Amino acid sequence: MYPLRRNRRLRTNETIRSLVRETIITPNDFLVPLFIVEGKGVKEEIASMPNYFRYSLDLLENEVKELWNMGLKSVLLFVKVPDNLKDNKGTEALNPNGLMQRAIKTVKNICPEMLVMTDVALDPYSSYGHDGIVENGLILNDETVDVIAEMSVSHALAGANFVAPSDMMDGRILSIREALEDEGYLDTGIMSYSAKYASAFYGPFRDALDSAPVDMANVPKDKKTYQMDFANRFEALRETEMDIDEGADIVMVKPGLCYLDIVREIKNEVDVPVAVYQVSGEYAMLKAAAEKGWLDHDAVMMEQLIAIKRAGADIIASYFAKDVVKLIS
Ligand code: PBG
Q: Is the CB of 280 under 6 A from ligand 1?
């Protein structure tokens, strides 16, 4: 006799499959990274990120309106800082009229309901391309945290809803939380890049912002003394739990695809929303393979995003946000 249960019944056609589908993607899942540059009328494609652009503030307005109309209601801002404004301490990051501060106001002005998150780290502002202050070949922790806390307050003052520290210094979440409370920004959230790995998948992003570590004596060549070793699992849990204790509202795992075991583990352990960053190298890989005709772009994009959500992501930061919303709407 055949078994009483035939699992294929639930796969007979698309109607039944969609009825029993466990994971779906909607525009509400996404956080859209945006790259911003000085200038007017600038919309430049990032060489290693096909069909992804840097915008000047005037064109950022159109992009933000378009996103909102597509149902994409959260953005994560990054700025490309001119070389002459970079120094070791990231001084420009605190400029109340700096590019990031103006970008926050631009988005809020054109679309007040758009949720604005800002990247908080020194690397775009650092003459050495590091997320922290460099001294004698080392990255200083506590001195960097002081700047990062001040930077967070500056973003809150400009109107950011959430700050997103991506630097991986120790103790930064507590310092940011205390600084925000002291200045009266009780409702400014913190999305912590809590389990951020030292990954080679960040290459195209560093092209986008011209923020790679510089090749100089006494400057570390990589970020391995602050970002996590990709061989480690328990450490991700420890980092994440500490960030929650220090006051993070949302935690993050980064990159995405190679780290879905970590995502599931963290999702099972914590009771705050878990974000996943599908990073620039993940985007570049699929674009390149699709350009060559080796992979079906839309099908693989969907499979990857569903996998990220199935693993436990409540929020996905992704360069595919617009592509996928066009596909599903
Ligand atoms: C910098 C930062 C990086 C990314 C987000 N914030 C790069 C890095 O840590 O070197 C990577 C994002 C991506 O690759 O898409 N603090």
A: yes
Q: What is the mean pLDDT of residues 91-95?
A: 98
In a domain, 259, yes or no: yes
The total number of structural domains that make up the chain: 1
Q: How far is CA 219 from CA 79, 88, 161, in A?
A: 23, 11, 34
- Is 77 domain-assigned? yes
Q: What pLDDT, in 10s, does the model give residues 259-313? A: 999 999 999 999 999 999 999 999 999 999 999 999 999 999 999 999 999 999 9
139 falls within a domain: yes
For residue 3, pLDDT beyond 80:
no
Contacts of 113 (CB under 8 A, 6+ apart): 68, 73
Which residue segment(s) compose the domain that 213 sits in?
23-328
Q: Are 262 and 276 in contact (CB under 8 A)?
A: no
Is 197 near ligand 1, meaning CB less than 6 Å away? no
Pocket test for ligand 1, best of 31, 36, 192, 205 (most atoms within 8 A of CB): 205
CATH number reported for the structural domain that contains residue 40 in this entry: 3.20.20.70
For ligand 1, what atom is nearest to the CA of residue 227?
A: 9
Ligand 1 in contact with 202 (CB < 6 A)? yes
Q: For the whole model, what pTM was predicted?
A: 0.97
CA 280 to ligand 1: nearest atom: 15
